[in-house]
From TrEMBL:
CDD domains: ABC_Mj1267_LivG_branched (cd03219). Keywords: ATP-binding, Nucleotide-binding, Transport. The keyword Translocase does not apply. Gene3D superfamilies: P-loop containing nucleotide triphosphate hydrolases. This is ABC transporter ATP-binding protein.
Amino acid sequence: MSSPLLTAQQIVKSFGGLTAVANVSVHFDQNELIGLIGPNGAGKTTLFNLLTGVTPVTSGAISLYTDQGVQSLNGKKPAEIAQAGISRTFQNIRLFKELTVLDNVRIAMTNHYREGFFTSIFRTPKFYRTEADMTTAAQKLLAIFDLTGVADQPAKNLPYGIQRRLEIVRALATKPKLLFLDEPAAGMNPEETADLTRLIRQIQHDFHITIVLIEHDMSLVMNVVERLYVLEHGALLAEGTPSEIQQNPAVIKAYLGGEA
Ligand SMILES: Nc1ncnc2c1ncn2[C@@H]1O[C@H](COP(=O)(O)OP(=O)(O)OP(=O)(O)O)[C@@H](O)[C@H]1O
């Protein structure tokens, strides 16, 4: 039985008269790779926004399981949630385009360094003692992601697929336990998508973290994840392994557009 990392219980989000997320309960366990799928407007990004404090929940409980016990994330701001070990990428690329690749990663580290992230999370008072330590750590991350050759290039010079990879590196620079990726393969060609799929699997394995992935490309999701949640009209339609989901009559009808 795997240990829970984050649970969301009966989450509701209303925007005026529209219920974007309707009574959704999910759990993400330690070291899991999970997919979140559903048609346009199903509430996937809204759910990410709720779990990362970008948007407050209308009702429901979000809990993070830590070494110090269970922590409620309700009402926490994005920076506090990042400090608690949760990181994310967004659908649209959010790099500092004029800065170099290396500086983009260093800044991701520095933000949290200033906020005392590493001191609070790792209980090693000086995780990165000096600028030089931080640079070394950033260079190591870039090497893992095969970005050393472009470390001194401004981010805007990189091809689109590499910019998306850099976004993932930046999200990892905060040493998260849980990483949310919002359509990481959006806009990529099939070859870049295949590379990214391998990379996501490798990150999850090598960094011993939990990754939750929103994806439209069903083949990408089915090949990579261990478990899936399917949302439709804000509600949870199904949960299961890729083969269970592929055979689920409600999913076939609603999401794949076939006959049940
Ligand atoms: N800030 C907001 N104000 C009002 N309505 C919103 C807001 N954010 C999202 N919505 C609505 O909530 C619903 C769910 O949107 P959401 O972006 O979460 O869906 P999604 O599953 O991520 O879709 P896509 O796959 O197209 O990104 C949509 O009807 C959307 O218009």
